Amino acid sequence: MLATLVGVLCFNIYLSFNQARQTANLVTDNMLSGSARMIAEAVRVDESGNVAVDIPPAALEIFNTGAADKVYYRVITAWGSLIAGYPDLAEPAAADQGAQMIFRGEPVRAMRLSHPIVSQRPNATVDVTVAVTLNRAQGLEREIWRYDLLEEVILVVVAGLVTIFGLRRGLAPVLKFSDAVQASNTERKTAFDESAVQTEMRPLVRALNGYIRRTEAQLAAQARFISNAAHQLRTPLTILSTQASVAARASDRKLANEALSALSNTTQRTARLAEQLLTLTRAEPGSGSWTAEPVDLAATARAVLESLADEALRKGIDVSFTGPDAALVLGDRTMIQEMVVNLVDNALRYTPSPGQVSVEVRAAPAGVVLVVEDSGPGIAPAERDKVFERFYRVLGTQATGSGLGLAIVREVVQAAQGSIELGSSAAGGLRVEVRLPAA
Amino acid sequence: MRLLIVEDSGELAEWLARALAQSSYTVDVAGDGEEAEHFLAVSDYTAVILDLSLPKIDGMTLLRRLRQRGSKIPILILTANASLDGRVSGLDSGADDYLAKPFDLAELEARLRAIIRRHHDLAAPVVAVGDLTLDSTTGEFRLNDQALSLTPREHSVLTHLVMRRGSTVKKSALFDDVFGLEADTDPSVIEIYVHRVRKKLEGSNVQIATLRGLGYLLRVS
Q1: What does the buried/exposed string (b/e) look like for B75-96 if buried means 16 or more CB atoms within 10 Å of the residue's CB?
Q2: Are A431 and A369 in contact (CB under 8 A)?
Q3: Which of A229, A384, B59, B104 could be a cystine partner for A422, CB 3.0 to 4.6 Å?
């Protein structure tokens, strides 16, 4: 901005310098013209045809302005006879126009005037050339230019001051607003006052406020989650600590062993809970750990069932799988696997012995469907929305669980842009149907 | 001494009960607020360990109802919520003490002993009845400054009687305190234990008197 201003200023100075020179030349030319005319009018032709001139003093005194300018003149007839003045003074090519010349080593401004005279010769004219050194012209030029320059500098300074002052004033609310935003770093985030800034800035403040509100909501949800998670971790930790105490104080070996084996189970469960919490955090939108790659859902389901088969048999639950050799969906490999683990683990957990858990994978238009069915108690229609909430557990549930399984499943399904539906299975248990987009 | 644990995590309740049984407490477990109210209505407990987040009737409501009914039973609150507000409102609602999960078993037991002691107006952890002293911290009885050796059941009987020294204790209450709810033992078996304890107290100035139709009374002769 400053560079532009300086550029404009230089250009302006150049223009006014030219203007000053032109003005000074014009003044000089007027004087030269007047002087030449006076001389021309003093030219006389006598009866014998001789041309003579009596230079009127006024014609030279015009230039007597105290600038010590030297005046040169020459009067010559069209046929080349010098009547008066300096014979070596050159004539400007064009008549009636001021011209810049060098005479006797000095720059001069000269003008030629052609004046008709009464004579028998055809085209009888005299050419009067007047030249003057440039002291006065340059003085005048400088004076005009200086005045212009002064005017310009004043204008620029005033304009600059006005600009700075105006910007300061105009930007003051914005600067104040920016201070307010900076200061609010430490405190709780509240909405900023829109009316503190100019009308043009208000959409920006409004957008910022909207952003703050969304961030706030996100932070609050996160804080709730962390507090819930801490809450959920406290009970298993208490159980662990109690089991350890029982084992430490047990007088008989049987009780000590029992307590230690229970402690090991509780530890595994607590570790699983921690794992689920991590999975949830990773599945969250914007966590940045989500990748979209082709994942074989059929192979994943088969692998999960195989890894849980032993546990299922121990509990007296039949597991079955139906599905194609491969069914590719688009999602994060770890997350998809976590989803299947949680679905099957839930089914096993809530299904009493003897019971069945069946998993089916099949291709569907524009996607792949995963169905997990069990012969457990199922979930009442009124509860079906709530069970997706984190830490929600159906009242009176006897089986141990964190209340995170279905929350994880939903987050994964949402992140993979699929859909999930809960229903009743043929055996009266829960039927979970997940639809994921095909790879 | 008989305790009621009100806790919705069955696993935690089970292990707490086992741990407290190691310390010679008789423990009943209620899984929700309703069950707890029922238990409290039909039996006498030395103290209650109450979790605040319970199905059906939540812990705080149960606590307020108990106190409104005039019950002075020592209550120790357990909760996963360790916030100051929770502690304050818990204590203001009539709890005697407050413990946040996770806690150390030793601390739970120390606090239990403290609230039971306070309930029985015992500033000092050592209770003395004539020649007999009970260190409520260690649960150790001494007679004429000699350690008194008791079986766990005998210990429970004598502890109950010492805590209620100077007043009569019904046979059924003593039985409940020693055997708890699950016991399918013949109630008259309590007489055997009282008899054994009596023999161990022989030669001192402490007596367990039998008052027909009323129960037992621990007294200094």
Answers
A1: bbbbbbbeeeebbeebeebbbb
A2: no
A3: A384
DSSP secondary structure string for all residues of A165-184: HHHHHHHHHHHHHHHHHHHT
Cα of A230 to nearest chain B Cα, Å: 8
Query: Tell me, what's the pLDDT at A390?
Result: 78
pLDDT tier, A189 (very low <50, low <70, confident <90, very high otherwise): low
Average pLDDT (A195-224) is: 82
Residues of B in contact with A243 (CB under 8 A): 15
- State pLDDT tens for residues B67-87: 998 888 999 998 877 667 777
The span from the CA of A36 to the CA of A39, in Å, is: 5
Q: Which residues of A touch B10 (CB under 8 A)?
A: 398
Residues A235, B15: C-beta atoms closer than 8 Å: no
How far off is chain B from A334, nearest CA to CA, in Å?
A: 31
Closest CA to A96 of A69, A122, A124, A128: A128
Residue in chain A closest to B82 (alpha carbons) equals: A231
Closest CA to B154 of B137, B138, B139: B139
Question: Comparing C-alpha atoms, which of A332, A402, A405 is closest to residue A374?
Answer: A405
Q: Contact, A371 vs A431, CB < 8 A?
A: yes
The alpha carbons of chain A give a radius of gyration, in whole angstroms, of 52
Runs of H (alpha helix) within A252-296: 253-283
When CB atoms are compared, the residue of A232, A246, A395 closest to B15 is A246
Cβ pair B80:A234 closer than 8 A:
yes
Hey, is B92 helix, strand or coil? helix
Burial group, residue A238, by CB count within 10 angstroms (0-12, 13-18, 19+): buried
Tell me the chain A residues in contact with residue B22 when contact means C-beta distances shorter than 8 Å: 246, 249-251
- The Cα B116–Cα A106 span in angstroms is 125
Q: Determine the pLDDT at residue A56.
A: 87
Of B19, B55, B81, the CB nearest to A246: B19
**Measured between CA atoms, how close is B53 to chain A, in angstroms?**
11
Return d(Cα A27, Cα A141) in angstroms, integer.
10
> Quick check: ipTM above 0.85?
no
> Is A241 close to B55, i.e. CB distance below 8 A?
no
- B55–A396: do the CB atoms touch at under 8 Å? yes
Q: Does A30 touch chain B (CB under 8 A)?
A: no
**In a 3-state reduction of DSSP, which class is residue A395?**
coil
CB pairs under 8 A between A and B: 55
Is the pLDDT score of A221 beyond 80?
no
- The pLDDT confidence band at residue B18, using thresholds 50, 70 and 90, is very high
User: Per the CB < 8 Å rule, is A242 touching B19?
Assistant: yes
Residue of chain A whose Cα is closest to the Cα of B104: A241
